[in-house]
Write a structure and sequence with these properties.
single chain
Length: about 220
């Protein structure tokens, strides 16, 4: 019985290694101990490429859900617009309810004041959004779902995704990551055909709320 339970909760080494890699990358990106010493944009770019490579190497099956057509593009753009509106109103509501949240919101807005050229920042943010979805929804959630079932895979992946942002100690960002992860993961849980719209919406949402129309 113990061996059966151990087998059920066992995480394949490739998955554990992949999660450890992204955990280290996101710690370097967001923790107050490392962030002042690294160029955020360069580390973000390299990290995004790295986790995409890991997903492609360990779970190339994610490409089976890639279907780029007009319907998926429209769905992705529409989802991004809806989520951006929700994020803007939700952030203002949180600040109204708990004024302490204003400080966390101001720390998110640094993307808009970064001296990096606006076009390059847009490209990097698009890369980050696409890479995260390929890694989390295309790779980790699918592997977890195959092992423990779709619901457990969905919840576990959403929590792990959110945990990557805890080291920022920005609870507005962490709460946003959790809510958005539940939405994106939930759509992929319902139907794998949502994968491309989810990738597109994440990439566009990053650009909208961090650069074009900051929260």
């Amino acid at each position: 019985m113990e061996r059966k339970v151990a087998k059920q909760i066992y995480i394949p080494e490739r998955v554990g290694l992949s999660i450890a890699v992204i955990a280290v990358c996101w710690f370097v990106l967001f923790s107050p101990w490392t962030r002042p010493w690294v160029d955020f944009w360069w580390v973000l770019s390299v990290s995004s490429i790295l986790i995409s490579i890991l997903a492609g190497h360990f779970h190339p099956e994610w490409t089976l859900d890639v279907d780029i057509n007009r319907r998926n593009i429209v769905a992705g753009v529409g989802l991004a617009l809806i989520l951006s509106v929700v994020c803007h109103y939700a952030s203002r509501w949180l600040v109204d309810q708990w004024p302490v949240m204003q400080a966390y919101l101001e720390r998110i807005r640094w993307f808009n004041t970064d001296p990096m050229h606006i076009l390059l920042s847009v490209l990097v943010l698009c890369l980050m959004g696409a890479a995260e979805e390929i890694f989390w929804r295309g790779y980790i959630q699918q592997v977890f779902a195959e092992r423990w079932g779709a619901n457990v895979g969905y919840v576990a992946t959403s929590l792990l995704f959110t945990s990557m942002y805890v080291w920022s100690f920005n609870w507005m960002l962490v709460l946003g990551a959790l809510c958005l992860s539940l939405v994106w993961g939930g759509l992929c849980r319902l139907d794998s055909r949502w994968f491309i719209p989810v990738i597109l919406s994440h990439a566009l949402l990053n650009v909208i709320v961090f650069t074009l129309f900051p929260l």
